[in-house]
């Protein structure tokens, strides 16, 4: 097993500072993998997955806290309805510039999957592989229903403390950025359709068969609309977080996909 070195990075943007972390194998081979987290996520909530991915793939793995999340600076104001596609030209671009990422693979979980699609579309010549996990392709009724349920659960006494462990005083904003943005009228017609048509690199879409935040219609649409080749893998007896629920299966799928010519 390779030794890993772990490094912390601080990325300056026009709106604030981002925290990033990298896991670097001693005998690194291949393009790096950048992870994009979900609506309530951050670097710490990836837990040991980045290290295990770096070990399994032999590649550098980089994760970062989006503005407003984890150890990054607070977000100035409310998220605009365009926040998913905006990430490609905001925090992600700053990360690539500071870490000199000229070519990369992307792995995005949930809303991070949508952002990964946006980044692959915006940097079509640099993105060599795209992996979406539990990504939403449009704002459907099932997704919105479950977000309403989660919002009510977090409103119960003590529940917000789960977020404060990772986001500190930004926790209320993090929850609102998820629930209020997705449930707003301005977001009701959102979809990835236009961005997907601009994705040229090979795509692997991973999705659990019991994903409470979206049916297989989401990965099916993602695979159908990209310009490049695509693979769809449905994980059985799996919910919204395959990399935690079926880690070995996800690692095997990613390493296989990255090794394809």
TrEMBL record:
Q: Which organism is it from?
A: Pseudomonas muyukensis
The answer to keyword Lyase applying to this record is: no
Q: Which domain of life is it from?
A: Bacteria
In its keyword annotation, does this UniProt entry include Hydrolase?
yes
Classification via PANTHER family: ALPHA_BETA-HYDROLASES SUPERFAMILY PROTEIN, HYDROLASE
User: Entry's InterPro entries?
Assistant: AB_hydrolase_1 (IPR000073)
Q: What is this protein called?
A: Alpha/beta hydrolase
Report domain AB hydrolase-1 positions.
32-185
Q: Which GO terms describe its molecular function?
A: hydrolase activity
Keywords on this record? Answer: Hydrolase
